[in-house]
Amino acid sequence: MQLRYAFRLYPDAGQRIALAKAFGCARVVFNDCVRARQDAREAGRPFPKAGELSKTLITQAKHTAERGWLGEVSAVVLQQSLRDAEAAYKNFFASLKGTRKGPRTGAPGFKSRKDARQSIRFTTNARWKITDGGRLDLPKIGAVKVKWSRTLPTTPTSVTVVMDGAGRFFASFVIDTDPAADAARMPATDQSIGIDLGLTHFAVLSTGEKIDSPRFLRRAEKKLKKAQKELSRKQKGSKNREKARLKVARAHAKVTDARKEFHHQLSTRLISENQGIAVEDLSVAGLARTQLAKSVHDAGWSRFVAMLKYKAERYGRTLVKIGRFEPTSQVCSTCGIKDGPKPLSVREWTCPACGTVHDRDHNAALNVQQAAGLAASACGASVRPEPVLAQREEAGSHGIPTGSRAA
Question: I need a labelling partner for 239 at 20 to 30 A (CA). Which of 286, 323, 348, 403 fits?
């Protein structure tokens, strides 16, 4: 499978200017492609092919006065921008036909120079390399300093340079993982576990362990409120407003990075200790429309479950998602009797049939494990359900989270 390994970049002043040019040229080519498609549609003509667009918008445009500066950046960056536009249209048409999974996507729109997040991509034919000194040498940009937090397991197939809203630069490498090395890293185990995700505790395990919710956003609210108030008082278009915007963006980035690190550490621990993992398929979008919206977003359940999914596939584990309408909080995990719904204020209850006193969340975690058919795996029996494949990030996707990591 393919994974992304992201590392922080520290370009100097000249390299920042070169990267800004590359970001701008890639954005212009993307917008020109969208405009050419729109013009063809309005004129009733068939959409121009990728080869025709490449010739018109890149090769010929470099020799014009209006687009002559496109020659100042790597041609691979411009070609990849065209491919991004083609992929966006392909996803849009697949969404219209109903052949694409997930929510419907709209038609590609124009990118703005005011977008805080920018990215460009270099494939292997761009002749980028990692120097002996540990720098990332990019064509027409130079050797950029990299902070290596870990070693790349194999040779990357491409690298995407990203500037996030906080003004930080990252290099995201696409890596093809080695199944044998992954199997050796996490040998098989006979343990299984059920997880009940919540707000009082981030997760309660079927073993009885309760993992507290860090509430990163809640803890940073005071600082964020102050920074956002200062931003609102700055004059639009001024340098002070840009400084205030960066301050807000960095505060949000700090919260996001802390939450992501927490999810990575917890998901890696659960995957390494258990052969089978069961979670409930929560309706996060529905819960995010309630009064608990801020707390739900702060918990980040969707990202956590997504990490469990791709790590389960990578290391040969089994992840089972049970239906969201399974009455895990209403059923006694000991005798199986259904005692009916209970308000959230009820944290403990006694089974009327067998007299067992249940902790609400622990009982739910046990029911999640049993509903997934994983209860027998701790005794050495094989886990019955088939594994759920992880969602893979496409090699050229611009939707990578900055600062992401593979565990």
Answer: 403
Active-site pick, 84, 298, 313, 361: 361
DSSP-derived letter for residue 48 is P
- Two tokens, residue 101: 């999974």
Catalytic (active site) residue 339? no
Active-site annotation holds for 115: no
Burial (Cβ within 10 Å: 0-12, 13-18, ≥19) of residue 128? buried
Rg of the chain in Å (alpha carbons): 25
What digits encode the pLDDT tens for the residues 81-135?
Answer: 999 999 999 999 999 998 988 888 899 999 999 898 999 999 988 999 999 999 9
Structural tokens at position 52: 């025709």
Q: Active-site residue among 32, 84, 164, 280?
A: 280
Picking from 348, 365, 366, the residue whose alpha carbon sits closest to that of residue 357 is 348
Residue of 407, 6, 314, 23 lying closest to 173 (CA atoms)? 6
Whether 359 is catalytic: no
